[in-house]
Amino acid sequence: MHRYTYTCPLRWADADAYGHINNALFLQYMEEARTRMFAEVLPTDEEGRRQKAFVVARSIVDYRAPLQYRDEPVDVHVWVVKGAAASFELGYEIRDADQLYAEATTTIVAYNLNTGRPRRLSDDERAFLSRYTKS
Q1: The domain at 4-130 falls in which architecture?
Q2: Separation of alpha carbons 112 and 118, rounded Å
């Protein structure tokens, strides 16, 4: 399986009163990784971004261990679990080499913001996603 890995810096403001990274921020870390992964396939012009958007339809996060604030970043691994005509599911791990902090999935829908409706994935998008799909 090919994974995209984003090395995510931790910010002091992400920590709660106990020094743990707030669990809600794990969704933001996943978003940062996903956005960087998709940067290659996302349109750069405003009209293109409106016509070829992706929206999150569902997120499920299983928290495995508390992540303490520290200077070292954490890795966010992303891969494609499955795909359909207008949507796909991404898998995630937020981890270090020796510790898993969270596992998650998100269902992503290809969307046209101009029409307010889902759209089919393009051939280029399917080809891009296939690089991160389990072989």
Answers
A1: Roll (3.10)
A2: 6
Phi, psi of 14 (to 5 degrees): -75, -15
Contact yes or no for 76/108 (Cβ under 8 A): no
Contact 84, 25 (CB under 8 A): no
Give the other-Cβ count within 10 Å of 99's Cβ: 12
The Cα 125–Cα 118 span in angstroms is 14
Sign of torsion over alpha carbons 89, 35, 2, 111: positive
DSSP assignment letter at 101: E
Tens-level pLDDT at each residue, the chain (135 residues): 699 999 999 999 999 999 999 999 999 999 999 999 998 888 777 777 788 899 999 999 999 999 999 999 999 999 999 999 999 999 999 999 999 999 999 999 999 999 999 999 999 999 999 999 975
Nearest CA among 82, 108, 73, 78 for reference residue 93 = 78
What residue spans define the domains of the chain? 4-130
3-class DSSP assignment, residue 126? helix
Rg, Å, the chain Cα set:
16
